[in-house]
Design brief:
It is built from 11 helices and 13 strands. The protein binds acetyl coenzyme *A. The site of acetyl coenzyme *A has 23 residues, from helix 2, helix 6 and helix 7.
Amino acid sequence: MTDMKYAHIVGWGSFLPDRIVTNDDIALSVDTSHEWIYTRTGISERRIAAEQETTATMAFEAAARALAVADIHPSQIELIIVATSTPEYIFPSTACRVQDYLGARRAGAFDLSAACSGFVYALSMASQAIATGSVRNAVVIGTETMSRIVDWQDRATCILFGDGAGAVVLKGSSIPGGMMASSLRSDGSGGDLLSLPAVYHNPVPTLGPEYLYTNGDKNKTISMAGRQVFRFATSVISDLIEDVLEKADLTIDDVSLIVPHQANSRIIESSAKKLGVSSDLFYMNLERTGNTSAASIPIALCDAVAEGRLEPDDNVVFVGFGGGLTWAGSVVKWAVTPPEISMVDREWKRARYMFTRGRSRLRKLSRRWGASLAGSPVPEARLKDADSKKQ
Ligand code: ACO
């Protein structure tokens, strides 16, 4: 056991693609309207990744920003967990791609699949690794390119989702606070309410991000029983929040902010009513982002911090729900004020990642040269590199 067992959030960062797609834009291709979408969901617009942007490149951007806020060098990171339902590859994991982009040479890295609850699940895993002394610093990321698994002809689902990534840095400390409690839940019997087929359903072996460009193929896009998902979400959120608060020995009156999964404003309003609190206690940014699945909570957290909604010693609750079915909550005692990061510092930190990228490329080349000199077969380089992508 370690005395650095309290896992504090010391850095946060998010990344949203530049391209904005409004409800009116969507109404040009399917039979819907801004009015219908906004009143049923609270969503006005969402961001859609450009072709060169992937789940891993967006995750890298968010993580690099979080590390800059934490003022932690990537080599100090010992664990990277990426929560995602839209990996470019089954393996290598998105987390390993991010490890390489960051140059986090001492980090273990893995992906975690718990749909929209994934970020809260990952936060719980990482904080427990810190509590046991197994790692001291961890990066937890939620990242999704939902636009690549949505059937853009299906008006019931394509209106809901958006792309983006958010990340936090967790650091072990002997000062009480940070992650106070978490509750994880699942109910596999509801798996068919929200699903996305994978390998077994994909008889044509394709490689690269194009694997996820799936328009029109029902075997490769999200299917969702919207009303039942709605009912499931509104039935679990308030109980889960009460449960996790009880574990942390707190009540709802001790909570300064709840950052929920950003699926639908009506789900959030109904949960606030059940808890007997104002919906203002719940932070919402889904009007501008849509539902970014595992990325939604860390992106919302970053926006809440930027708007000054969190002060040191505030108790903040995260609550996620989604496919699996899964749902999860955690309580965090917030400990830090956002640091000032100078332009020079920011640019220097970014430049560092160019060196990292070069070092990684050299390592790949030397592996190939070494193999060919030794007469070993050199595997075809089939992973699409991020080198050509906007970084
Ligand atoms: N525009 C216009 N009409 C539409 C649209 C649309 N985009 N989508 C559906 N309709 C129509 C339907 O065809 C139906 O028409 P009908 O009555 O003539 O048959 C009518 O609107 C009602 O359809 P419902 O699906 O029952 O509409 P509902 O009020 O349930 O709203 C919605 C649909 C917004 C999807 C809602 O069910 C919902 O938000 N559910 C939760 C979904 C969710 O949050 N999923 C993600 C959570 S987990 C995760 O993030 C992965």
